[in-house]
Amino acid sequence: MLRALFALLSIAGLSLPVTTLDEKPRSFPRDAAAPRSVVIVTFTKAASKQGAEWSRRLAEVKAKLPAEVFQVAVLEDVPRMFRSMAISGIAKQVPASMRDHFWIATEGGKDWKRCVGDGPAGEAFLFVLDGRSQILWRAHGACTEAKVQELLTLPPPP
């Protein structure tokens, strides 16, 4: 069952600073792919395992998915003195080919939570962004075949 065939939330005007794992500055949603992006967001280390599984599974269905996939680790709640260690640990697990699409956010946690909606912080969140301004679909938790199929059956981007 499709969760939505219309925009759930407009994020027009939002500008969240992020950095790639290669330390390149980016801004969300401006630097997300258009016309459509899938964004996986995690707020805790525990959620990162689910986020990695979502990334792996979406890479497998890339040919069927009319979108670029980005993963965002929101580290705002990690004390500054430990952030570099957290980022280093993340970087060791992310292949070089995916580093430009893996973003680190150290601020704007409330805005990221607005984008992902409600759910336990210990889970991965995922949303579909159309035209860099409209959130079309959301999910959270473990990657399941039902959720992947729901994502793949969304109408094509405008």
Can you characterise this structure?
The chain has 158 residues and is an alpha+beta fold. It has a single domain, classed as 3-Layer(aba) Sandwich (Glutaredoxin). It contains four helices and eight strands. It has an eight-stranded mixed β-sheet, sandwiched between helices. The radius of gyration is 14 Å and the shape is globular. The N terminus is likely disordered.
Question: Mean pLDDT, rounded to whole units?
Answer: 91
What proportion of the residues is helical, as a percent range? Answer: 25-40%
Radius of gyration: 14 Å
Q: What count of domains describes the coordinates?
A: 1
Which range does the strand content fall in?
25-35%
Quaternary state of the chains: single chain
Q: Which ranges are low-confidence, i.e. pLDDT below 50, for 5 or more consecutive residues? A: 1-6
By CATH, the architecture is named 3-Layer(aba) Sandwich
* Discrete helix count: 4
Strand pairing plus helix content: what structural class? Answer: alpha+beta
CATH homologous group name: Glutaredoxin
Order of strands, widest sheet: 1-8-7-4-5-6-2-3
The helix-strand sequence is EEEEHEHEHEEH
Kindly state the number of beta strands. Answer: 8
Topology-level CATH name: Glutaredoxin
Largest sheet: 8 strands, mixed
Between the first and last Cα atoms, what is the distance in angstroms?
21 Å
Lay out the secondary structure.
Blueprint lengths: L8 E2 L5 E5 L4 E4 L7 E7 L2 H16 L7 E7 L5 H14 L8 E4 L3 H8 L8 E6 L3 E7 L4 H8 L6
Parallel strand pairs: 4-5, 5-6
Antiparallel strand pairs: 1-8, 2-3, 2-6, 4-7, 7-8
